[in-house]
Amino acid sequence: MQDPQSVTIVQIVPEQAAIEVGMVDVAVAAFGVTGIIMTAALIAGLLAGAGYIWYRSRHAVTIIEARGNTHNYFRA
Questions:
Q1: Is pTM beyond 0.70 here?
Q2: How far is C-alpha 64 from the geometric centre of its chain's CA atoms?
Q3: Whole-angstrom Cα Rg for the chain
Q4: What is the DSSP code (8-state) at residue 67?
Q5: What pLDDT is stored for residue 74 in this prediction?
Q6: According to the model, what pLDDT value does residue 7 have?
Q7: C-alpha to C-alpha distance for 6 and 24, rounded to whole angstroms
Q8: How much is the average pLDDT of 33-53?
Q9: Are the CB atoms for 34 and 27 separated by under 8 Å?
Q10: How far apart are CA 51 and CA 42, in angstroms?
Q11: Rounded to the nearest 5°, which phi and psi values hold at 21?
C-alpha cells in the first residue's frame, strides 16, 4: 500500500505592499521623456525663427529693396 500524500500550503506574505500606479503617474512619467524632446524642439524652433528674422532684417529681400525702394523699371 502507498503512503497517503500530505498537502502543504505555503503562503508568502510580502514585507511591503506593491505600489499602485495610476493613469496620472503613467502620464507624468511619459511626459518626462516626451516633454524634454518637445521642449528641445520648441526652443530650437524659436531660435531658428529668431535667427531668420534677424538675418532678414539685415539683408534686402528683393532687388528693389536693395536699390533703396526705387522702382525704376526703365533703367538701362
A1: no
A2: 42
A3: 36
A4: T
A5: 67
A6: 82
A7: 48
A8: 93
A9: no
A10: 14
A11: -115, 120
